[in-house]
Amino acid sequence: MAKITMTVNGRQVSGQCDDRTLLVHFIRENLGLTGTHVGCDTSQCGACVVHMDGKSVKSCSTLAAQAAGSDITTIEGLAANGELHPVQAAFKANHGLQCGFCTPGMVMTAVDMIRRHGGQLDEATVRAELEGNICRCTGYHNIVKSILAAAAEMGGARVAAE
Amino acid sequence: MGVEGIGARVARKEDKRLLTGKGRYTDDMSVPGMKYAIFVRSPYAHAKIRSIDATAAKAMPGVIGVLDGKQLLADGIGNLICGWMIHSKDGSPMKMGAWRPLAHETVRYVGDAVAIVVADSVAEAKDAAEAVVVDYQELPVVTDATKALEQGQPQLHPEAPNNLIFDWQIGDPAATDKAIASAAHVTEITIHNNRLSPNPMEPRATLGIYDGGDEHYTCYTTSQNPHVARLVMSAFYNVAPENKLRVIAPDVGGGFGSKIYIYPEEIVCLWASKRTGVPVKWTSDRTEAFLTDAHGRDHLSKVKMAFDANNRIIGLKVDTVANLGAYMSLFSSAVPTYLYATLLSGQYDIPAIHANVRTVYTNTAPVDAYRGAGRPEATYLLERTMETAARELGVSPAELRRINFIRSFPHQTPVIMNYDAGDYDASLDAAMKAADWNGFAARKAEAAGRGMKRGIGMSCYIEACGIAPSAAVGSLGAGVGLWESAEVRVNAVGTIEVLTGSHSHGQGHETTFAQLVADRFGVPIDSVNIVHGDTDKVQMGMGTYGSRSGAVGMSAVVKALDKVEAKAKKIAAHLMEADESDIVIENGELKVAGTDKTVPWFQMALAAYTAHNLPPGMEPGLKEGAFYDPANFTFPAGCYICEVEVDPETGVTKIIQFVAADDFGNIINPMIVEGQVHGGLAQGIGQALLENVHYDPENGQLLTASYMDYAMPRADDLPSFKVSTSNTPCPNNPLGIKGCGEAGAIGSPPALINAITDAIGNNRLTMPATPQKVWAAAHAAN
User: Fold this and answer.
1) Is A162 among the domain residues?
2) What is the pLDDT of residues B120-174, one digit of tens each?
3) What is the pLDDT of residues B746-776, one digit of tens each?
4) CB count in 10 Å sphere of residue B4
5) Looking at the complex, does the CB of residue A68 fall below 8 Å from at least one CB of chain B?
6) Does the CB of B650 have a partner CB in chain A at under 8 Å?
7) Is there a single domain that holds both residue A9 and residue A65?
8) Hey, is the C-beta of B285 within 8 angstroms of any chain A C-beta?
9) Three-class DSSP category at B546
10) Angle made by CA atoms B130, B219, A136, in degrees to the nearest 5
11) Quick check: B516 pLDDT over 80?
């Protein structure tokens, strides 16, 4: 057993868990944050993506102990003051989700993708970068559209701020 | 059309919770004292169980209990059943072998459950499951359906000699043979429809809770039809009487057919909860999903299509062998019969059809309905045959189809179906225009200049949705009626709850069903809540599959709204001292037509509940229910065109464009309909290009049991799609809806394969068209 402390969605949390406990299970079972999902067990589907120290990671292939001391953001931590994050808003506006199960991982991956590429995303890049996220409902058409729309909106917002 | 009414592209009401991590899926559920289950599963595809020894497992840390099939049998839990009776052509009933929720004598596929371990944590349950010693005596294995029918093959069930479940036929064999004998041309082709795993992203899960005080069970489960689950678990599996069993299917992460069925795990977890005295939760991992979720397709068919000298089809003969796996799943018998062979007329006027279907047991996972369910098999068969015939006859594929289109409605096919409405030329024209069909030759020449082989292919599909008229399906063997129910409750403040027996697991019912109410009463959709998925809240329902929620589920809502509207108008007329025939409802107000007299919707609702001033004899309150039983199937149809480029050096196929032109009848929310088409296309393209369930034929081991081995379509495998609709309203339901959930998966595989075979100049190609297969076919003589 290990006692682990980390920051999750801006709040410091601690918990006891087995050495073998995965970060996704620590988040879901110990912290009760069930927005992060498990879809495949082999690090393929990306339903479990969270941000660790600002970068997207698959929480199903990260031990909870590895995340000790880090700053974790889950899907629950993305919307601020009840307002959807621009990526979440774009997914809603463009029908980028159907059953919603892959959606938290898709959104977290998209946020990281837009952060790394800024306003320079194109369709081919988005499709290539979604390699690690599987959706069975949407055929990706509206997910790609959502991410491009969010990237344009966020890139535009940044330009406006400057 | 209001901004939130019928036809509006309304953003979904359910999205906020799903986008913020507040969705509540079965695995998210947690109750006090809950423990975790792991199933001990057979590692063999066929074996006798000599003994099960759980002594060591029971002594492991955290273990609450280990239960096996003998205990389940002793407690009177029944066999899993197939709910659709099919008779062979000799009149004998289908041969259904026993499927125990926990096998205690024989295991018949890898993954067959033999015991359940309940422990404090998943990890402890997994450790203990490893320690359960099952002594198996291995038996010979057969995985291929055609082989399983041969003499001397392993026998799966004593009830089914030679593994034959039924040998069924439809149509007129003599007339069809005569047409073939007199034909100017006969196209012959063998069609293999590959085996698929549905793969909703949410793995199956269940939480069984037994309350000893009330002798009551609660089952949270990943189901597309919780009421059917309750009915079947109660009536056939003896889990509990219906009034002592509540089934809840909360947010469900996709289904595609695989969550229609009642599986062993939910039955066993309910039973185990009573046996162990704790709530028991089980969540499938992805490998278990590949092993045990019902698979789809797996047909092998021999086809003869006969043409007269004018290229008109005069006869179609089909001989199909369908693999149903180790056990008969809930609707498995209906898929290769009434959901398949009844669609073999396609969009074409064919005077004589005969189809023979044999279904077979093999040592593989059960096979049942997967998105499209029978209709993709019929469409793939017909549309590959049409393309092949066009090439043999030297006619353009579009022309051959036009020569044979049905243009007069209603149209009675020789295989039961009566098509009510359609315009097949319109969707073919729309698709060819969108794909710039006429510019293809230039594009092909340009590609050839780069050393690439470009091809184009089409598919004209029809399907039957809105299942189904209860008496009709009853006469064909269905064990249930296929109506739907709805209840509309207007609260005293005017807000509205709509309770529906349909179940949403991605389809957006919370939005589209609310749009019906907004359209009718002019109230905002935010004042309307859609309630579904809980047998304690909704009285009864048949659930969501077969693209039925719009045509059947919404029609039930319309019937209930009719009753609410009638009573609301009576109340308003009384309040305004007007005649009820003069009352109109607009923008959330009830008005006396031609006057300035109005009563706001909420005030009418309040009057219904205060009951201070109602018409004489009227009951207080405003709540109405309805059951809707459809008069016919609905018949969505369309034309899909795919253009590909094949690299002859590598065999890699790139999709250049994919066009879908559909006729779905009237549409409630075009944004959601387009999303359904996109998703269906991705699954159909996945089948044609990437996906295949592969068993080792020697030992029945599943070789594609993870996303490392089973090629799911990913974003960079697919293009953006060009979708459109040209709609003829369905005359048989009040909204004119046909259904859109499965079309993409039905129409796309033949369009894609026809494009590849056009590109490489070789018609001999099976799905999935992997680079290896395409390369080999491109370099072989046709």
Assistant:
1) no
2) 999 999 999 999 999 999 999 999 999 999 999 999 999 999 999 999 999 999 9
3) 999 999 999 999 999 999 999 999 999 999 9
4) 20
5) no
6) no
7) yes
8) yes
9) coil
10) 75
11) yes
- Tell me if B20 is assigned to some domain: no
Q: Are B409 and B421 in contact (CB under 8 A)?
A: yes
Given a contact cutoff of 8 angstroms between Cβ atoms, the answer to whether A53 and A70 are in contact is yes
pLDDT for the residue A162: 47
Q: Sort out which chain B residues have CB atoms less than 8 A from A91's CB and list them.
A: 15, 19
B50: in domain: yes
| CB A118 within 8 Å of CB A155 | yes
Q: Which domain holds residue B678?
A: 420-464+635-782
Same domain for A73 and A90, yes or no, is: no
**C-alpha closest to that of B533 among B291, B228, B173:** B228
Element (H, E) at A157: helix A141-161
Nearest CB among A41, A75, A142 relative to B675 is that of: A142
Distance, CA of A128 to CA of A113 (rounded, Å)? 11
Domain match, A97 and A145 both: yes
> What confidence score (pLDDT) does residue B269 get?
98
Of B19, B254, B744, the CB nearest to A101: B254
B203 neighbors B286 (Cβ within 8 angstroms): yes
Domains contained in chain B, number:
4
Q: Which CATH number does the domain housing residue A73 bear? A: 3.10.20.30
- Count of domains forming chain A: 2
Same domain, A90 and A42: no
Chain B nearest-CA distance from A104, in A, is 6
Instruction: Show which of residues 123-152 on chain A sit within 8 Å of chain B, judged by CB atoms.
Output: 123-124, 126-128, 130-131, 133-145
Among A77, A98, A130, the domain-final residue is A77
pLDDT band at A158 (very low <50, low <70, confident <90, very high): low
Question: Does residue B6 belong to any structural domain of this protein?
Answer: no
Q: What is the pLDDT of residue A118?
A: 80
B 484-543 residues inside an 8 A Cβ radius of A: 505-508
Instruction: Report pLDDT for A120.
Output: 85
CATH number of the domain within which B123 lies: 3.90.1170.50
| Domain-embedded: residue A68 | yes
Q: Which residues of B touch A44 (CB under 8 A)?
A: 706-708, 712
A window 74-113, beta carbon within 8 A of B:
74-76, 78-79, 84, 88, 91-93, 95, 97-104, 107
Q: How open is the CA angle B316-B321-B326, to the nearest 5 degrees?
A: 155
Distances (CA, A) of B333 to B229, B322, B338, B477, B660: 18, 10, 9, 10, 30
B85 and B39 belong to one structural domain: yes
Q: Which two tokens stand for residue A18?
A: 């087995």
Q: How distant is the Cα of B712 from the closest Cα of chain A, in angstroms?
A: 8
Residue B141 and residue B364: Cα distance in Å, rounded? 9
Interface contact A139-B14, CB threshold 8 A: no
Ranges assigned E (strand) in B689-747 = 722-725
% of chain B residues with pLDDT over 90: 99
pLDDT at A155: 83
Q: Give the domain range for residue A73.
A: 2-77
Residues 6+ apart with CB under 8 A from B649: B451
Is B103:B314 a contact under the CB 8 Å cutoff?
A: no
Quick check: A152 and A119 in contact, CB under 8 A?
yes
Q: Residue B161: give its domain's CATH number.
A: 3.30.365.10
CB–CB of B12 and A92 under 8 A?
Answer: yes
Q: What are phi and psi of A16, to 5 degrees?
A: -95, 135
Cα separation, B685 vs A17, in Å, equals 43
* Calculated CA dihedral for residues B772, B773, B774, B779, nearest 10 degrees: 90
| Same-domain status, B288 and B301 | no
First-last CA distance in chain A: 49
In this prediction, residues B679-701 reach a mean pLDDT of 98
Residue pair B290/B205 in contact (Cβ under 8 Å)? The answer is: no
